[in-house]
Structures are given as C-alpha cells and as structure tokens.
Amino acid sequence: MAPLPDYRPKQLSVGPLEAEILQIIWELGSATVKDVHDRILSDPNRELAYTSVTTVLRRLTDKGWLVCDKKGKAFYWRPLLTKQQAEVIKAHEQLQRFLAVGNPDVVAAFADSLDETASEQIEAIAKRIQAARQAREGK
Question: What's residue 39's pLDDT?
Fold first, then answer.
C-alpha cells in the first residue's frame, strides 16, 4: 500500500452523492459539471438537477477533495488526491480511532473474534510494523 500522503482534505467525511461524484471525477481525471451530470443521468432511473451537481462539486472543493480550474469558458474539477491516497488516509483515520480506545485488553479482545483470514492479515501487518521499526533503527 502507498505511504500516507502529506496532503489531507480539510474534511474527510463525504456523503453518498459526494462519494459518487468523487468516484466519477477519479474515473475521468478531470470533468466539467456537464460531464458529471451526464454520467449520473446515464442511469435511466436517476434524476438529479444540474445545479445539484454544481453544488456538490463546490462542496467537495470546499472540503479539500477537488480543485477547480478554468479553461476558456469552462470550469474543470480535478481531484487533489488519488483514490488510493484517499483510501490510505481513511484507513489511517479509522486505525487511529480504533487505537484511541487506549486499552490493550479491549483491542486484543477483538483478536478472539477474528476468522483465520483476518488473523493472518493481522499477523502480516505485525510483521510489516516490525520490519519498519527495524529499518528505522538501522538508519
């Protein structure tokens, strides 16, 4: 997995429509309101006002997820993070909240409820943590 990026959005939480639009922007790389609106309306069961797309794009910009560039008369939105970077940041935040419990017994109690695959993942993570510590100490 990629390292933790230096840049973080001002606000990590995004609503369902924000997440959908962010996904579209990641897929397209850069998009106008029309590009996003057309993509959403490609589903015949969906209805969404053009102005609602504009509002959500501005909200994602305010939250620090997107930046808006003007090219000629058109405005293009592009992501400030890749999808992978966003996943790393969200995973890091979830881990920090989990570890904030602070009681090793409570955290360890979850280990008893893990299936074999999850236990193997935890062991692999522990090995990577140990290797990272050894690498830091070796510097």
Answer: 97
- Nearest partner of 49 among 28, 33, 70, judged by Cα: 33
- CB–CB of 66/19 below 8 Å? no
Q: Tokens 């000629």, residue?
A: 72
pTM: 0.78
Which region, left, alpha or beta, applies to residue 83 given φ > 0 means left and ψ of -120 to 50 means alpha? alpha
Q: Which residues contact 37 (CB under 8 A, 6 or more apart)?
A: 48, 50, 53
**pLDDT at site 42:** 95
Backbone angles phi, psi at 39, to 5 degrees: -65, -45
Question: Measured between alpha carbons, how far is 137 from 18 in angstroms, rounded to an integer?
Answer: 42
